[in-house]
């Protein structure tokens, strides 16, 4: 892999907004930079991000598309509209909703969500939220657990902020109506999960995310200053260039129900779009998790960090081991929460041999990366397809009280978890990398803030500690409010800005009969499965340089094949369709993961490579992918819109 790596200070990057150019990696023009861990201040502020009334723009070097030009009889423009808001929020999980509720006190808010508002990674989070709420616990202990789990790649200042502010964020949720489990003494029931030294997991049985989402969504829908736009797929961010600074002005979306492009112009944009689990064939993420936010931000010149650290949850339900198999394949793997092991669950291979103590002295309570690799090793050595997680030695009433959702799902398939072990297998679960953010969720793109899984704040390091994800989302959603509000108040909304960018054109299939669009979408589905297969086979739990290079080559060939077919059949730079746009985002994220993995010559946390099997102290630095020229990039790595030569005012 050709990549430029140097040692320096990230302050220069953030304060100037200038990308450091180097050799291109793939067709995307990725540029890498390593930074001294001691010199790196992850949370260094983007001081220019609060400048008001940015102006100036430039041509990004992609061909202008004229909507009136004839592409193909099966592709046509559909009426477009533009909406203006003070704040645009992309994503309706815990980060997006919590932020929206706060900034709505200062202005109008559009919440854009790809599916139904509740369909987010938050809704599928079972375990809970970690916070120091017990007198026997401490912020220092929570910090230490987080740093150890993160293989000491975490940013200490970020960890301290999150662990310190966490308890207050929990209290705010309770005040808003979120209902969590309480013990017999009337206090919150605090569970313990892998990697935690204390009981500190606030939960609502095994459906915590669903309860938090319910409370937040109810408040959002009752807020007159917030408009929720469901079934709106975010296509690309709207950006311009002001000297060396990239400025975000909103986002183009595709209304999936009406096939209409809707443009949102806003003073501030929060990206809270979740992760990219569907770059792999088996993931606990819902179907909406196709890496849209990470890919959009990369195309918009945002700095990306630590994408090699993909967390595979050790225990997703293995359908092959169920007495009654599901009749159809699941869209996403069913998660068996970490709390099952925290409550005393034991892992066995199919010979009923307990194996975790062989791998780690913490046994089943080891961090997720350790447990996932241990299971992977057992499966490969024994040529088996799943292992067993047994909680049946615990009292029946306790199991059913703590894990009602898991018990119900397993019972549908003939398995009683109070009497039988649960078949489990690792599945892609969480992206520890993402859009690099400071302590207030700011990015190097002016007007663009990030929170939740799409962000890389420095909290998780090389591996996320269980139940720290909802906590991080809550903390950073609140921390982004003040700078966002200040920027909103000092910025003038340009009502003439909408036509500064070319409009995406919707691809529509003619009916009846087989036409070009249906062929393109059929190929897209096939290519999606192939990409997922490549990622699982070559960029999975255990990696090697040879396998990563093979993945790089195969993905490049696959993308070239797909794009060639599209553009030879009348597709154009600005043409959009849901599945095609998701595919370009999946390609973009997959390349970011592979390139980042090739750049890390050690094994740390979630990134384990047989060629560099040990931790190297000299390499305890984040992986940074800097903005670079999009002119030679593939379709997946450059923005759709071409900006006009007229300056934004």
Question: Can you offer a commentary on this structure?
Answer:
This protein is an alpha/beta fold. The chain contains 17 helices and 22 strands. The strands form five sheets. Strands 3, 4, 8, 9, 10, 11 and 18 form a seven-stranded mixed beta sheet that branches. The protein has a six-stranded mixed beta sheet with strand order 1-2-22-12-17-19, with helices on one face. Strands 13-16-15-14 form a four-stranded antiparallel beta sheet. The protein has two domains: 412 residues, FAD/NAD(P)-binding domain (3-Layer(bba) Sandwich); 114 residues, Flavocytochrome C3, Chain A, domain 1 (Alpha-Beta Complex), CATH 3.90.700.10. Helix 2 runs parallel beside helix 13, helix 7 packs across helix 17 and helix 15 packs parallel to helix 17. The protein starts with 6 loop residues before the first strand and ends in a 23-residue tail after the last strand. The chain is globular and about 65 Å long.
Distance between the termini: 41 Å
The helix content, as a percent range, equals 25-40%
Low-confidence stretches: 1-79, 645-649
Number of distinct helices: 17
CATH topology name of the largest domain: FAD/NAD(P)-binding domain
Mean pLDDT: 85
**What's the domain count?**
2
Class from helix and strand fractions:
alpha/beta
CATH architecture of the largest domain: 3-Layer(bba) Sandwich
Strand composition percent: 15-25%
Q: How many extended strands? A: 22
Return the CATH class of the largest domain: Alpha Beta
Measured on Cα atoms, how large is the radius of gyration?
24 Å
The best one-word shape is globular
Question: Major beta sheet, specifics?
Answer: 7 strands, mixed
User: In CATH, what is the homologous superfamily of the largest domain?
Assistant: FAD/NAD(P)-binding domain
